[in-house]
């Protein structure tokens, strides 16, 4: 089987006539020794000087043989008749041979071009997304009303943009080179709504904590000046026209507002005088207190400035400026802790509070009915204060 191939490969058949010719044949083997594997390049000699391309084909043929052997090796190992045969040592492969094996693939040049083009496209898309994330502040979708309400407390996205345009018509806030105006407003509202720390906001918006503090103080002053007129004292006729059904009874016909006091905890001041003025023996904490008045329909019509937590409800009501809005004939609803009948009587107004059994064994039927209605109306105050406390900054201890 091998002999005819020898004669085909030899330039002259008479080359086998002597031992020198046989040595010449062995010299023409690529590895210098014959092989019994028909697929091996040394199965027959083929490196002869009379062929110009033989020196280039022999290494390639040897590499093809090694690749074919490496592909066939797992199949031979799994064959039942070769289970007990010892593994032959692998032939050493240089770096060029390993590269040749790894590059063998069924992909065509067109498939490779397609993959390269897709790789370039994905790299460009990745870079574009990286650039886009640099300009996304706060990770809030301002087109989603539910997200806007959660992060800012505003009811809709349209309300956010309307507030921004209203402010920018009157002011030009600083720091626009570091962060756009809409992001500044978003950051301030997120701090108020969620009570986020400056370090958290600096990470979300890509600015330093010091810049966060400066932006917050600048915007909070602007919002205080421009939004304070939104809390207005309505006329008596307007209040009567918008009385809820629960208040449309003779005893509550002249109801003007429901008042209550709320507080915000603060850190303990450094000076002893400030500690004394802000410490509440009832809450056992340093705090500030303010008076809030709610219309029967549920809207806020008055908020006082903050006072030290030590002040009583009577003193706060007397000096906060609330009584300046009271007119003759008004009816003010409050809790039992507001002994302000005399203060209201001076202005021709009256106070209504839930009935209590002081000096009595029990309440009359009429007092029970009035107390039930008063309690139902006073729920409006509790709901409104609860809405205020949803701004988590007011739930924290203010430094």
UniProtKB/TrEMBL annotation:
GO terms for molecular function: metal ion binding. Residues 77-91 have a biased composition (Low complexity). Keywords: Metal-binding. Residues 259-398 form the DDE Tnp4 domain. InterPro entries: HARBI1_dom, Transposase_HTH_dom. It holds the Pfam family HTH_Tnp_4. Residues 184-229 form the Transposase Helix-turn-helix domain. Transmembrane segments: none annotated. It comes from the Eukaryota. The keyword Metal-binding applies. Its cofactor is a divalent metal cation. Residues 59-98 are annotated as: Disordered. The keyword Nucleus does not apply. This is Putative isl2eu-7 hma.
């Amino acid at each position: 089987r091998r002999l005819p191939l020898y004669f085909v490969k030899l330039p002259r058949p008479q080359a086998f006539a002597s031992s020198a010719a046989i040595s010449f044949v062995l010299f023409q083997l690529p590895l210098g020794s014959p092989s019994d594997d028909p697929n091996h390049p040394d199965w027959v000699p083929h490196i002869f000087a009379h062929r110009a391309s033989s020196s280039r084909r022999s290494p390639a043929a040897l590499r093809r043989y090694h690749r074919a052997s490496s592909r066939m090796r797992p199949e031979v190992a799994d064959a039942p008749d070769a289970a007990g045969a010892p593994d032959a040592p692998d032939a050493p492969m240089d770096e060029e041979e390993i590269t040749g094996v790894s590059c063998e693939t069924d992909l065509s040049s067109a498939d490779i071009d397609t993959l390269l083009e897709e790789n370039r496209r994905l790299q460009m898309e990745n870079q574009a997304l990286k650039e886009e994330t640099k300009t996304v502040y706060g990770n809030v979708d301002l087109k989603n009303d539910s997200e806007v309400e959660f992060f800012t407390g505003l009811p809709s996205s349209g309300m956010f943009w309307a507030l921004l345009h209203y402010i920018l018509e009157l002011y030009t806030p600083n720091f626009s080179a570091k962060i756009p105006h809409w992001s500044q407003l978003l950051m301030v509202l997120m701090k108020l709504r969620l009570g986020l720390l400056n370090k958290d906001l600096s990470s979300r918006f890509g600015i330093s904590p010091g810049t966060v503090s400066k932006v917050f103080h600048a915007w909070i002053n602007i919002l205080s000046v421009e939004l304070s007129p939104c809390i207005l004292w309505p006329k008596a006729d307007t209040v009567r026209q918008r009385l809820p059904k629960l208040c449309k009874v003779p005893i509550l016909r002249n109801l003007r507002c429901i008042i209550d006091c709320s507080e915000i905890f603060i850190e303990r001041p450094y000076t002893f005088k400030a500690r004394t003025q802000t410490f509440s023996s009832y809450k056992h904490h340093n705090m500030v207190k303010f008076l809030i008045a709610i219309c029967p329909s549920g809207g806020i019509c008055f908020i006082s400035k903050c006072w030290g937590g030590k002040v009583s409800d009577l003193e706060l009501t007397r000096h906060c400026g609330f009584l300046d809005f009271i007119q003759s004939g008004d009816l003010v609803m409050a809790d039992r802790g507001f002994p302000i009948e005399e203060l209201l009587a001076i202005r021709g107004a009256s106070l209504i509070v839930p009935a209590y059994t002081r000096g009595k064994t029990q309440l009359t039927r009429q007092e029970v009915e009035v107390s039930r209605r008063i309690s139902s109306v006073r729920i409006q105050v509790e709901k409104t204060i609860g809405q205020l406390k949803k701004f988590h900054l007011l739930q924290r201890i203010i430094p």
